[in-house]
Input
Amino acid sequence: MAAALRKIHADRARSAYDRAAATCRHAGVGQDDAQLVPTSPVGRAAGALRLSAGSIAALASSAPDPAADARCARNAAAAAALAAQVAAARDAGSETAAPDSAAASALRAALAASQAAATAAGGTALGRDGSLNACADEAERRAVAAARAAGWVSEDREA
Output
């Protein structure tokens, strides 16, 4: 069971990380923007992306642990939400942005995916609740679709 849960959480973590990386690229956030003590949204997004990459890499060398694996997915989703905040703010500053733009929708979806991943990882669930994991997976799929619609993630990226 732990191995099956590892796959679920790892797949969601990789999706959220890929979404965060693509969103950072769209917003012009690079790895060199990461700060030890972040002082800006850009620094927070870059730092969170870097930490998520390390967590995902650690999955390959550790034994399956549903709670830890779910926290990894939660952290990647949080990194994607931070990246979405930066991208939405930059997109909102463009002359063609509408108040309810695709960027605003993508930000809302990223925040919902982050919240769903946190719920699946937290409380008494500890990454083992099938219905919470399914909700987090669905929220991640919606966040990918919204990021695509906003132009943050390319069409050829798998959902």
About this structure: The two ends are 24 Å apart (CA to CA). DSSP finds five helices and no strands in the chain. The first helix runs from residue 2 to 27. Residues 2-149 form one domain.
